Amino acid sequence: MATNPTTTNNKKQPSIPPKRGQIKARIFDSLVKTVVSTVTSRVPTSETTGNTPSPPASSYNSDANSETT
């Protein structure tokens, strides 16, 4: 029995919606990849600059508070 190729190609398979949570997972994965690539491209690390970050300067002066009487 031969089938007619025009009738088998005209049938469209119904599209099945994705499983529950699959769309949110794709969106979240895409968002994470975008944020990570943006942050890593803008913030220089100590490995790329060759310098280690120095601690912030403090405005505390220990000599000003020590009074001798």
From TrEMBL:
Disordered: annotated segments: 1-24, 38-69
Domain of life of the organism encoding this protein: Eukaryota
Biased composition (Low complexity): 1-10, 38-49
Biased composition (Polar residues): 57-69
Name of the molecule in the record: Uncharacterized protein
